[in-house]
Fold these 2 entries.
Entry 1:
Amino acid sequence: KWSTIANQVSEKHFNRALAEEIVPLDADLILAGEFDAPDAISLLTKLNQPVQRLKTPQSLRDIQQQWLDLGKLTGDGELASQLAETVDQQMQLLSSQSDKVKSTKVYWYTANGVVIGGSTLEDELMTLAGFRNLAKEQGVMGFSPLDLEMLLANK
C-alpha cells in the first residue's frame, strides 16, 4: 500500500471500465471522458445506460461549465452555480494579485520532453499564479516537444 489514501478508498468499488462491470451497478448516471473506453461506452449506450460524455477541459471556464452541466443532470444546479461563482471570485482575486508580483519565468516541462504552451488549462493556471510561460512566449501553443538541451539553453 504505497498510496497515502489507500485506507480511505479501500471500501470503494473500482472497475476497469468494462461494460459488464458497470451495468450491474444500475447507475443513475455514468460519466465518461471523451477518450475513455470507446468500446465500453458504445455498448453502454446501445444498452440504454445513462452515459454522459465529458470533454477534456481546456480552461477553468470549461471546468465551471462542466460543473453547471453536471449540476443540471443531477438536480444540484444551485450548488453547482455556487461552486462556479466561488471559483470565479477566486480567479478574479488571483488575476488582480498576479499583476502586483514580479513574474517568474517558467517552463511547464512534462514527461517525454514536452512543454506546455498557450491555449491550455495549464497556461491559464500559470498566468493566474503570476508566472510567465516561456513556451507560450516562444510561440508554442498546446503541447510540444522540447529537447532538454534547448530547455537549458533558454534559461
Entry 2:
Amino acid sequence: IKLSIEQFLSRRFKKQIEQIVADLDVFNLVIEISYNEIAKKKNIRPIIRQINTIKKYGLAVSINNLGSDFSFAKKIHLLLPVVDILRIDIKYFNQKENWIDLPITFWVKLTNKYRLELLVSGVETKADDQLLNRLGIDLRSGFLYSAPKPFSNING
C-alpha cells in the first residue's frame, strides 16, 4: 500500500490499519512511503512512532524512491532500525558508467548491516538482471519479469 506522508501520519491511520487487518485476512502487507516525502520532514520522530505502531499489526514498512546518491542514506539513517525494506529503482543508477555496481553495492551492504530487504525495481533488461545476479540481489521487479497487474489478477 503506497501512502503519502500525510496519510501515514494522520490520526485516523491507526484505526484504518486496524480495520484493514480485521476485514481482510492479510499477510505480508507492506506499507510503502516515499523517500521524497520523508526528506521534506524536519522531525522524523512521528514517522518512527507510526512505524512502530503499525508493526504491532504484523505489517512491514518500505521506503521507496531511493537513488544512487549516498546522501539518501544520511537522510533516512534514523529510520533504518525500524523499517523492513528499502526499494531502489535501477533507473536512478547511471548504467552507462562502468561503476554502476558501486552505489548498488553500498545499498546491499547497508541493508545487510540493518538486516533489511533490498528490492530493486525497474528491471527491464537482461543486463540489469545479470548485474543483480552478480551482486546477489534476489528481490526485484520490473517489466523484464512481468507488467503490473491488478491485485484481482494475481494468482496466489
